[in-house]
Amino acid sequence: MLERLASLRHGLAFRVYGIAALALVSGLGTFAFLQAQRERRLYRDMVLAGASATVATATETLARDLVLGDYAAIDDALRQVARMPSVLSLRVCEPDGRVLSEVSREAGEVRLAGTPSPTVLQVPPRVPPGPREVDDGATLEVWHPITAGDHPLGWLRATLDLSPLRVIVREQTIRAFGLALALTLACVALLTWSLRRPLGNIRRVAGFARQLDARKGEALEMPQCVEEVDQLRDALNAASAELQRSEHRLLHDAAEKQALSAQLLQAQKMEALGLLAGGVAHDFNNILTAIIGYANLALSALEPGRSERDDLEQILVAAERAAALTKSLLAFSRKQPTELGPVDLRQVLAGMEKMVKRLVGEDIQVQVTSGPERVVAMADGGQVGQILLNLAANARDAMPRGGTLSITIGRAAHPPPGAWEGGPPEEAACLTVADTGAGMEESVRQRIFEPFFTTKGLGRGTGLGLSIVHGVVTQHKGAVEVLSEPGRGTTFRVFLPLAPDGASALARETPLIPAARGSGSVLLVEDDPQVNRIVRLTLEEAGYTVTSVENGRQGVAALSDGRRFDLLVSDVIMPEMNGVELLAEARRRAPGLPAILMSGYTADALERSGPLPEGVELLQKPVTPQRIRAKVQEALAPRH
Question: In this structure, are 413 and 384 located in the same domain?
């Protein structure tokens, strides 16, 4: 736009002044030339008229003298004519061109040639009749016939000087150019005055265009001018407004791009976390199943009051915490669906209080508050416990020199926006965890839920604790709120959907652990040796007859031996033949055979093994001995 304006301005000025100057100079030259030609013609005609009249008069005398042969009289007549200022020479010649007499003027004196030039002049034809003139620019030759009646006697040739004519023409030309120059200056002044306004407007337009980047959104004000300049002004004003709108769009697009980039990075981190969690879930869950199983067997073998029982209980607490962490990781990374049900948050807090106190240490005072009424949320109890542990660990790191950790359970009206279905409810279950630590700045608070983001030193944090909290709350269709200021501590408020009134009664005070011994024949198929052994020992201790094999082919072989089994307990994903295929083969041989399937893999990995048969229970590893015995007793109950 700036280049266009500059080009328009300079081009317009150049064309206007150039065309005006060219027109005026051309007019000047034309005027001077025409005036000079006019003066030249006037003087020439004047000289020619005078000479012609004199020569015409002289030819009458010369005709008489030629008839009489009086050459002296001819010479006198020639001398009289030669005294004219414009005459250079006079010659009288016969009709064939032979010179009879010649008079010339040199230095203002008339001289008669003693002997006429023997030169024979080329006589012009007498067509048309009368005087004949020949002009070579410097001189003018006039031929006039000498006749007696109709009889030609000869010619009189007069040579006239045109030098005075050139002087007159030069003077007239100078006067004409002077007059044209004066007219040119007057016209330039008139053009400058008339173009001052449009060129001034163009100058303002050019200045506005040069500063357009700094004046986005402003309008150019100037008086009305020629239509093209007014159109250019309107175009500049439109461009200024469009630049302002474009800048706003660019800023908005840049903000959206940054937000999308952050979301993409978040999704990539979650996908990486999901791949990591899904990859280790199977082996880790098998290990935890063995740890929990052997610890329970050892605990059941000890008499009450033994000091070893406390150590074994701590092993079980740690293993259950690891199992809950794995489950939370899988739920956070969308690799494992969350199993929601009525959960009494007071029971969760009562079961986790001792673990929280051990986690934060003795220099931090833990204050637990819950109202008199039950707060039952639709949640996964294990994941709610994991939320509590992660928030407690975060509070511990924020209070390196000690402080107070407050945990409160209650109901909250009008919870904040989150992942609610159909918008925030009027009331929600609320778990509040507040500390008296260092607090956070706003820039840190906005990023605390990003995976792998941490303000702790190298080796002191993974950046996953609060990310898991946010992911689990999102899976529960709830919301989480953070209040924090530097030096004034941090408060986390976790909002979860309340359970319906009818479902609240289903929240159990204590887990159901069957105490009765069972009976029956069980076929156990498990490829992990430690899990195979602990499940077999658990069921045998409960009174069941167990045949254990390591893969699906061995399970088919055991079924083919003719032995009768009351229940099939099998892992899902195994080499050679998976659990779903094994169950199909077993029911082909023994229709209606009850079955329990176990797996440490994630839900998306299990889908590749095919859909589970209807009515088949799936136990997600790690699984406790109590749960195994309860599920086996439940599966065999119809047969007893």
Answer: yes
